[in-house]
Design brief:
By secondary structure, the protein is mainly alpha-helical. The chain has 11 helices and 2 strands. The chain has helices at residues 8-30, 42-64, 75-97, 105-138, 143-164, 166-178, 185-190, 196-209, 222-230, 235-270, 272-295, and strands at 69-70, 73-74. A two-stranded antiparallel ribbon has the order 1-2. A hairpin with a 2-residue loop joins strand 1 and strand 2 (73-74). Helix 4 (105-138) packs antiparallel against helix 10 (235-270). The longest helix has 36 residues, at 235-270. It is elongated and about 95 Å long.
Amino acid sequence: MHDSILNFGRYRYLWIALLLSVGSLAAYIWHDPIGVPNGGSWLGYTLGTIGALLILWLLWFGIRKRRYKGATGTLRGWLSAHVYLGTTLILIALLHAGFQIGWNIHTLALFLMLAVIFSGFFGVYAYIRFPELMTRNRANTTRRAMIEEIRELDGQALVLADKVDSSVHDVILRSIQGTKLGGGAWAQLRARDDSSQALVRLKEAVLAAGDAEIAPQSGNTMVMMVDFLATKATDAQAETLRRLIDIVSRKRSLASRVARDIQLQALMEIWLYVHVPLSLGLLGALTAHIVSVFFYW
């Protein structure tokens, strides 16, 4: 079995998290506080201390992960513990509060903690699932190689377009100039490229070169348009146009794969722009929670 962050060390940290959860739940059931269960009882303070220490330890991971291996174990082991013990915090925090939730700074800390944990769930999914999707999408090549191939196809398309007609050449040139991959965060997440416009514009150019009364009967596929153009052009031009359409179609496929690759990498990284600020907000809310508890104690 592949040793991932979830089954690291034969699920070592899953068992630790389960033992901690079962122990906390058993203590909560056994505990008989005066009045309703709450964070002000001895068990509430104990679970609150455990939860606070866990949060501080989990926040330390942001610093620890900058070093792959140290005296305290591998980064993968730390990440496995980060996932399982972070999930355990949901139960510990609720038991600490005695499931008493109101509109105050304490509940704010709870909600921020839940937001951090659930954003972390997405991060776990992203780092487990997306690399596999990226490998499959790249098909034994690299993004750099695909981009280089797109550039080569652009050069070949211009040469062929120049042999067909000046208007087709202009269309291909504008399409190349308008093709954009990547860009800002929103553009990366949309996984959209402009290479498909080359096919649309090429269709328009081909139809414009023919008879308006006959063109609609030719259908919308590239092959039919090439056959129609063959009735108005020489055999050499028709064959050149067929090769041009093949190249543009190949470029469109490659550009879509590059855009998808960029999207998957963006999804693997952009969640951190939510997870990290929420973690810092949690640290501030936790500090306010602790200070307010001891101030009114």
